[in-house]
Amino acid sequence: MNVRERVVVALAERHPDDAAHVLEQSPSGEVAVVLDGLEPELAARLLSRMDAHAAAAAIDELDAGDAAEIVAALAPAEATALLRRVERETQVAVLAVCPPGVAAAVRTSLAHGAGTAGAVMDPHAPSMPRDLTCADALTVIRERPHRYRHYVYVVERGGALLGALRPLDLIGAAPEARLDEIMRTPVVRVRATDPEASVVAHPGWASFSSLPVVDGDERLVGVIRDDDVRALAARTRAGAGSSPASLAMSIAELLWLGLVGMTEGLAAVVGREARDAREAREAREAPERTP
Asked: Quick one: 221 and 240 in the same domain?
């Protein structure tokens, strides 16, 4: 690695936002050369911070195999957003050589219209069939702990969403119990056709760190996580600049992020007031003590 390449790598690792800003001001051919000289994970990190159109133009300049390695290192929603903007020939060529799992996930998201929940979701929803036992479910989670960190969505064998549970729910359950016997219902959900704005403003974020996405037949088709929505809100705000719509999005996001804390605070106040009222009532109703 020569001096110039070392400088580029150091800048990308330590100041990715600055590096991305420099790259998006450069010709797409030069950007492609820089990205091609980086490890795929680092190149993906830069692309995710670049202007969307500049990033797509750079991918168009890369060999399909090199582009596929970078795309595979992106989050599914980021990969979908990127490939939605490249030339059709590039999109087909890159997906043809991507790892099968990545290609399938991106194709699923691309099938949904831009600006919808289906386009930004992760198609790999952490789901299990309803008739699986708790013991077998725990075995699956131990094999793939990163996939089942927060929730397990319980589905029919045909894919319809039935309920949800947390991995901790399985630990205290009888090993032979079926998931549909301990799952929680109903499940707050997002529809694949819902627009991005309604996804960001969905009241479910006040209680859950991810929301399942269903199609018109209530089949589970993906999941959207809170960090994805934060990124979506930030991208929407950046694209809108300082317009009234941007201001509204900022306010909506702040309200969303503060809703949990506000709700907990109100609950604490209400609980304290109820306790004080109860104690006062008990004091009034208690017989007077005689000296």
From this structure: no
Radius of gyration of the chain (CA): 24
What's the CATH number where 192 sits?
3.10.580.10
Q: What is the pLDDT of residues 113-172, one digit of tens each?
A: 888 998 888 888 899 999 999 999 999 999 888 888 889 999 998 889 999 999 999 988
Does the pTM surpass 0.70? The reply is no
What is the CB neighbour count within 10 angstroms for residue 139?
11
Q: Report the alpha-carbon distance of residue 285 to residue 282 in Å, rounded.
A: 5
Angle between helices 28-36 and 40-47 (to 10 degrees): 150
Angle at 103 between CA 81 and CA 75, to 5 degrees: 45
The answer to whether residue 254 is domain-embedded is yes
40 token code pair: 């795929």
Nearest to 30 by CA among 9, 57, 10, 51: 57
Give how many domains the chain has, as a whole number.
3
Beta bridge partners of 122: 223
Domain, as residue range, for 260:
234-285
Exposure string (b/e) for 201-225, b if CB count within 10 Å is 16 or more? bbebbbebebbbbbbeebebbbbbb
Of 99, 128, 123, 97, residue with least CA distance to 112: 123
